[in-house]
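Annex B. Sample input.
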Amino acid sequence: MEKILLTRAGYEKLVQELDLLRRVERPQIVQELLEAAQEGMTEKNQDFLSALAQRQHLDRRIKQLQQTLANAEVLVGSNLPPNKVRFNSLVRVRSLNSGREKEFRLVSSLEANVGLGKLSTSSPLGRALLEREVGDRVEVPTPSGLKVYEILEITMDNV
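Annex B, continued. Sample output.
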């Protein structure tokens, strides 16, 4: 399996989720299964069947998180100069179509959430921004037409 790039914050969030699922949620579901099984006739017991489905869902999520973390690579630095957009850069752009400014942190698709300002490096805009500099203009074809952005500022965390 290929490496999964994550920010330090994204990695820590996944570790915390895995810990919560293993130490809190799964034991609760197992307890619910045991209590529902004591009622007998498990194949017709809705509480038992519901708890079983929840446990299976949790087990799949735990396995997915374990695999992701096993293949994760927390990217701290880059061989690109700090004035170029790269993974984990905070980039402020202005849409030349609307004049509005937006700010994005470039992250992996696993961490992406545009509503929170986290843009995937594999998205059309994310790909267009990579390795560009302040003042550069990028064009991004979208279903509603060509969008043009100007890079106003690039910031990197020192982590």
